[in-house]
Task: structure prediction
Amino acid sequence: MAVSRKLLLLIAGLVVAGAPARAAEFYTEDLRIPMAEAGPQGLEAFLVRPAGTKRYPLALLSHGSPRSFDDRATMSAHKYYGIALEYARRGFAALVVMRRGYGTSPGGRVDSIGNCANASYLPAAAVAVADLRAAIDAMARRTDVTTSGMIAAGHSAGGLATVALTAQAPAGLVAAISFAGGRGSRDDDDVCNQDGLVQAFASFGKTSRVPMLWVYATNDLFFGPGLARRLYDGFRGNGGNAKFIAAAPYGDDGHYLYSVVGRPQWTPYVEAFLRERGLGHDLLSPPDPLPPPGQLNEAARTEFSRYLASTMPHKAFAVSPNGGYGWRSGRTTTDDAQRDSLGACMKWSPSCTLYAIDDRLAGPAQRTLTDQSARAR
Result:
């Protein structure tokens, strides 16, 4: 099932007042989720969990749906690494699963809502739930993940999918979170068949009893405050168990509050929700920023800062003795990232070595890669 594996050894850099720093270690893995409807290729997925030998409760993370169908092919589970890490820091095995038709998961338009005026949300939600259940089944067979005490969280169309999952709650699901949940936005403040969307959420409320947290920023341009309240009222009115948070405006469009950049605003909501239910554990520290290579000038150090800020695994940074450099992120494997960063560096210098791979310094064996070995890869 595994496409590639890696251990990220992350030394904690944050010191809690009055307490020593904790060493944080995380494990990541690229996966394909078996599912008959997705064919031999299965569903694209990416796992992030604390390193260790225990079984960590699953946090099933579900993505949104872009307004343009063509943009689905550009999506990747890796792009959600920064968000998945926040759940892993809280003691979960966070799995980002790309539903059918997104990223490299086969499926085309299988989750289509149909004609805008008569958009049908329940069939599309059923497709999403089937994909999420396939991911849960795959995780239940692992020795490092448990579906007992699991949670689910989703954004936008993934929020709708998460709410729909709670309406057919699998065994072991104890809490769920929806950020800006909905579907059918075709332009700012323009949603296909709003009444049908409200009815879908109301339908989920009839059988959903899993405790939920719903978060909508007040300047969300996909699902504005009025519609968000209608969705919530329909869900709650039929018995759904959810807490609604009208979050402060975020950026130019609050729909993107649930993002890596927006973490300072949304993680306290998640933290409080989990704590109320006794879920998760003491917060593990994020990676400590790596020191820049000593031979870099000021402009190159700024570029190294950009490398550190990138949350797209897999990535690597290469340097030359005279201060040349090159880096690449968002590659399929660490080998690809190493090869491409060395190639970028060697455009400026014939002698480059690897300095960093993902969030750790390159080991001695990796640093000794030369011009010849990079070109041979």
User: Anything to note?
Assistant: Residues 125 and 280 are 28 Å apart (CA to CA). The two ends are 24 Å apart (CA to CA). Residues 121-140 form the longest helix (20 residues).
